[in-house]
Design a protein that fits this description.
The protein is mainly β and 203 residues long. The chain contains 1 helix and 13 strands. Helix content is 6%, strand content 58%.
Length: 203
């Protein structure tokens, strides 16, 4: 505590507090967003598995668009996991969530009827889990692409990967920090209390 020492007119010593000390402080604030969903996903992938797109539809028919792209110059391989950046968009609110460096594993899936083998993807991440349980080909794939994804991606040999997905994403949207003025009271009578002044009633 800093004070000025002097003498009162009575001749008795007294202490005179100086002006309040002005300090600056900033408080980072943000808005929390979260999405916890479970539903059926239909995905289409590029031939080289560098990109995928699709949609998740939950039990209430709410939909979430999914986009994945491989990171940097990584090359997909059926024997390893490929790091990808995945974007999730709430189709109703347009809220967007991005998951970076998610390991996407390429696996071999055998069709239960034709016994043909197809390369599919599997994702096991704390925020996103997906496993292919069905592969649509031919006319079934074409119908699914037109109905759930986008007709412009319909191709004769395009395959649709179907499976259950679980999303558990929590993100914070940061806004500009607010500035606060702190006045430190240094008078002995106020026991060094700190009075905070701000023009933000929510601060």
């Amino acid at each position: 505590m800093v004070v000025d020492v002097g003498y009162a007119p009575t001749g008795l010593p007294y202490t005179k507090p100086r002006s309040p000390v002005i300090m600056k402080s900033t408080k980072s604030r943000g808005i929390m967003h979260s999405v916890f969903e479970r539903g059926t996903v239909r995905l289409i992938c590029d031939d080289d598995f560098r990109k995928f797109r699709g949609v998740l539809i939950n039990e209430y028919e709410d939909s979430f668009a999914l986009y994945g792209v491989i990171r940097g110059s990584e090359e997909p391989s059926t024997s390893q996991e490929c790091p990808m950046n995945i974007t999730i968009v709430d189709c109703e609110t347009a809220d967007k969530y991005e998951l970076l460096n998610v390991n996407v594993k390429l696996e071999v899936f055998q069709h239960p009827v034709t016994l043909a083998e197809h390369t599919v993807i599997k994702i096991d991440h704390p925020a996103l889990k997906f496993e292919t349980t069905e592969v649509l080909i031919g006319n079934k794939a074409d119908v699914a692409i037109h109905r759930y994804i986008d007709p412009k991606y319909s191709e004769a040999d395009k395959k649709v990967l179907v499976g259950q997905m679980v999303l558990k994403v929590v993100a914070q949207e940061r806004t500009a920090p607010t500035s606060r003025r702190l006045s430190e009271c240094i008078s002995p009578s106020c026991t060094e209390e700190v009075i905070e002044q701000t023009n933000d009633f929510l601060a």
